[in-house]
Amino acid sequence: MLVNGKAYASGLEGVGEVETSQPLEVQLIRDNRAMGTGPLRVYGQCSHTFGIGNDDIRPAWFLAVYVQGEIKTIDGTCSVPAQSVKLPNASLFEFGGVGSTVGAHSFQIKVNNCPKGYNQIGYTLDPIGGVIAGSPGVLPLAADSTASGVKIRIADDKGVPATFGTSIKVDAYDTATGGSYAIPMQASYIKTDATIEPGTVNGAMTVLLDYQ
Hints:
Layout lengths: L1 E2 L2 E2 L30 E2 L1 E2 L2 E2 L1 E7 L6 E7 L2 E2 L29 E14 L6 E7 L10 E2 L10 E7 L11 E2 L9 E13 L13 E7 L1
Antiparallel strand pairs: 1-2, 3-8, 4-5, 6-7, 9-14, 10-13, 10-15, 11-12, 12-14
Keywords: Signal
Protein name: Fimbrial-type adhesion domain-containing protein
InterPro entries: Adhesion_dom_fimbrial, Adhesion_dom_fimbrial_sf, Adhesion_dom_sf, Bact_Fimbrial_Adh_Pro
């Protein structure tokens, strides 16, 4: 069980006073045995119980959290093919002030061959080189870049800068059928300094998938 994001060990000993400001979370952890389907109940009863109590108050109170549900295995995961997005050449004179963008080019993040049965699939964009504070959607310059004062910005198809490091739900995923999906995006140059030195501008990101 997690309280305020912190895991507490099981056992009869208390853990002291804990004040929670978040929903309590119960996580299932896989051990080294073979995975199999089945209920989380044993002979009609819940097989796992978490207790929260206080015996300093009279009469003592106790809150029990019972774990119920069904475990089912799903064969396979989605795939995201690697791709390169080439932006058109841009002139220094096309840029305005710092933060201006030039050369927007549309592309798609493809999430292919998703099996049916998941409740939800999400994707996370992770820029190679880390997130640049205060610069949403902006990729760090790759080591082989020769330009300066300009970087690449990733945005959705409406031009809203991408959010890095946060799982985003694949809304089109259908748990009954599975399938392949395309997420429309765009990339552009963005001016990051008052002075731009011309050259090549490269950046990269990975797409991480999560399943629920």
